[in-house]
Amino acid sequence: MNPVQAIGGSVCCNSGASPGGSYDQRAIEARQDVLVYTSEPLDKDMEVTGHIDITLYVSSDAKDTDFTVKLVDVDPDGVAYNVDDTIQRARYREGYETPLFMKKGEVYELNFSPLSTSNLFKAGHRIRLEVSSSKFPQYTRNLNTGGNNYDEIKAVVANNSIHHANRYQSRIVLPVKTVK
């Protein structure tokens, strides 16, 4: 396994396992296992302040896997700075009380815990969303088997899909404020 490396972000609870803050994400975005969605350059400044809601429709050939989402501010020179990120372990998509495993070929709706930010995306910048299945060591590993993860030694590679057409409307909702 070759998990996506954590470069910056929140450091609330990882005891210094990865550096916190905003860093250039282009090396991460060049990986084949990171999906990158980028807006056109903004015509004017856009303030995003509040909770950011994210819904993804996903499928996987693994019983369990993680999905990570990262909001990124891309400057006119192409430097991509992380703004905020979150993770959803698929088995806990309906709560932590009863794990629910995935079945190959089925599509599942994931509603992520809201991101919370206040960022001014300047005119000429682009808004980017990265989607992956890991951000290690910021978020603990998932060996994709449905097991305990903490005591497993064998992993399964998860082949994941994000659905965003027809009845599966994956989306991010940004709380845009009027810039005066």
From TrEMBL:
Start and end residues of each Xaa-Pro dipeptidyl-peptidase C-terminal domain: 1-173
Which spans of this chain does the record mark as coiled coil? none
Q: What is this protein called?
A: Xaa-Pro dipeptidyl-peptidase C-terminal domain-containing protein
**Matches recorded under NCBIfam families:** CocE_NonD
One Pfam annotation, family name?
PepX_C
Molecular-function annotations in GO: dipeptidyl-peptidase activity
Look up and give the organism this protein is from.
Brumicola pallidula DSM 14239 = ACAM 615
- InterPro entries reported for this sequence: CocE/Ser_esterase, Galactose-bd-like_sf, Xaa-Pro_dipept_C
